[in-house]
Structures are given as structure tokens and as C-alpha cells.
Amino acid sequence: MSITIKDVEHVANLARLELSEEEKEQFTGQLNAILNYAEKLGELDTSGVEPTTHVLPITNVMREDEPRPSTGVDKAMRNAPDEDEGQFRVPAVLE
């Protein structure tokens, strides 16, 4: 499969892009190069390769979920630009 200038024009139209003739030719060449590379990868024999999500054998990299004390109201309010009775005050969104 190869990309034509007409394909690039169609996608540009869908994306509401105005492309010059130079850009259309450039994108056509770039997209065809990508497709050729994908075809080349498809030729590889991967029958003996197990599917993986990571290159390295990583299990769980998350820390243990352990309870710990929360930040106090006074400490949290030190970062608030505006505060009212221990609550963050923000501009109204609705009228």
C-alpha cells in the first residue's frame, strides 16, 4: 500500500489544514517511508518471541499502599491564594 497526494489532501481536508504543494509532496514521501518501514517490520519472524509490555522484566514498581498521616488544614492553607474558614476559596464558575 502506498500513500498518494490525493490521500494526503483528503486527510488534510478532514483535519482542516491548508497545505502547499511542497508540503503535500513532503508528507506523501514521509508517510510512504513510514509504511515501508512498517512493512519491513512485518517481514520479521517473531514466532519465537513472547509478547511483552516492557523490554525489561518489571513486576510491580509501585510502592506499598500504607496509611500515613495527612497534611493538616493549617499546613494546606498556607499554599492557598485565598481561604475562608479552612476551605480553599476560588472564583465562581457559575452565576
Automatic annotation (TrEMBL):
The gene is gatC. InterPro entries: Asp/Glu-ADT_sf_sub_c (IPR036113), GatC (IPR003837). Heterotrimer of A, B and C subunits. It catalyses: L-glutamyl-tRNA(Gln) + L-glutamine + ATP + H2O = L-glutaminyl-tRNA(Gln) + L-glutamate + ADP + phosphate + H(+); L-aspartyl-tRNA(Asn) + L-glutamine + ATP + H2O = L-asparaginyl-tRNA(Asn) + L-glutamate + ADP + phosphate + 2 H(+). Keywords: ATP-binding, Ligase, Nucleotide-binding, Protein biosynthesis. Its EC number is 6.3.5.-. It is an enzyme of class 6 (ligase). The keyword Hydrolase does not apply. Residues 63-95 are annotated as: Disordered. Belongs to the GatC family. GO terms for biological process: glutaminyl-tRNAGln biosynthesis via transamidation; regulation of translational fidelity; translation. GO terms for molecular function: ATP binding; glutaminyl-tRNA synthase (glutamine-hydrolyzing) activity. Allows the formation of correctly charged Asn-tRNA(Asn) or Gln-tRNA(Gln) through the transamidation of misacylated Asp-tRNA(Asn) or Glu-tRNA(Gln) in organisms which lack either or both of asparaginyl-tRNA or glutaminyl-tRNA synthetases. The reaction takes place in the presence of glutamine and ATP through an activated phospho-Asp-tRNA(Asn) or phospho-Glu-tRNA(Gln). It comes from Paenibacillus sabuli. This is Aspartyl/glutamyl-tRNA(Asn/Gln) amidotransferase subunit C.
